[in-house]
Each structure stands twice: as C-alpha cells, then as structure tokens.
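2024-03-11 09:14:02 INFO queue: dequeued item RNA polymerase sigma factor, len=179
2024-03-11 09:14:02 INFO validating residues
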Amino acid sequence: MDELDEGELLRRVARGDRRAFDELYRRTSPWLTVRLRRRCADEDVVAEVLQDTYLAVWRSAGSQAHASTGGSALGWLWTIAAHRLVDAFRQRARRERMPAVRTFEPVAPAAEEEALAGGMDADLERALLALPAELRQVLRAMVLDGLTARETSLLLGMPEGTVKTRARRARIALREALS
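2024-03-11 09:14:37 INFO prediction written
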C-alpha cells in the first residue's frame, strides 16, 4: 500500500477496500488534524469532525468524482472536513445561542500559505503579508479553504457582515498594492 498515492487509495476505498481506507487514514489524519486545530481550539470538536470526515469518506468515496478522474484526494478530504467543522460550529451555536469556539492565529504560517506564497510573484506575496491579520484570516478561509461568507463567519466567530466587509477591504488593499 505504501507505493499507492492518495488518489489510488481513494479509488480502492470506493470499491470497499478496508486496508486502503486504513492506509488513507494513517497517511492523512495527522495532516487533517493539524489543519482542523488551526481553526478550532476545542479538541473534542476536532476529534468529532475528524471522525465524521472519515465516516463520510468511507460512505461516499464511490460517488466522489476525483476517485475516477484523478483529482486531488486531499482537497476533497479537506472540503469534507471544513464543511463538517462549520456544521459542528452551527450545532454548538444553536445549543448555546452564541459563538462557541474560540479561534486563534497560528504561531507559524500554515503550510498552504507557504505553498501559495511560493507560487506567486513577489509583489502579490508582499501585498498579502502587508494585510492586517484579521483580513488575511478571512481571505484564508474564503479563498484557500473555499468557504462561503456565512461559513467563514461561523468558523471565525464573527458576524457575516464583518466577514464580507473584511473580504472587501482585503480585495481593495490588494488591488491598490498591486496597481
């Protein structure tokens, strides 16, 4: 199983291969746990989301378009996890009638930020790094993680209007910095 990439493992999971599922979990769960912890400080929520994510992978790998087209298995996995995390925030907010999970800025840049920075020109990288942290945080959720404004507001524990305002301010600042 070590020689197979995640896409092939996912294709085998789609055919009901339990060993492939175990290998996919072994390879991807540490990475996914770190990404979830960057967005949620509650270890119980992270553990629940991780379990829900892999249950969804087992159940729906057969219908997943990337299983047959060779798309990004990790991207598909993260999409499931991000949506499960937002769902967990929604459930908790309904129970407690207030934002329930604190978020925090990571001490070191996230791997996806470093990868994105490596693939862009120096001007864009400087413009992004010059943005205030609260604007970068909204951009990360909406652009890198592909979340909607509503999902981002739940993830970051702020009103949806604030998310939209910060996203707009970030776009304006980037446009001005790059012109």
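2024-03-11 09:14:37 INFO annotate: The radius of gyration is 18 Å.
2024-03-11 09:14:38 INFO item closed
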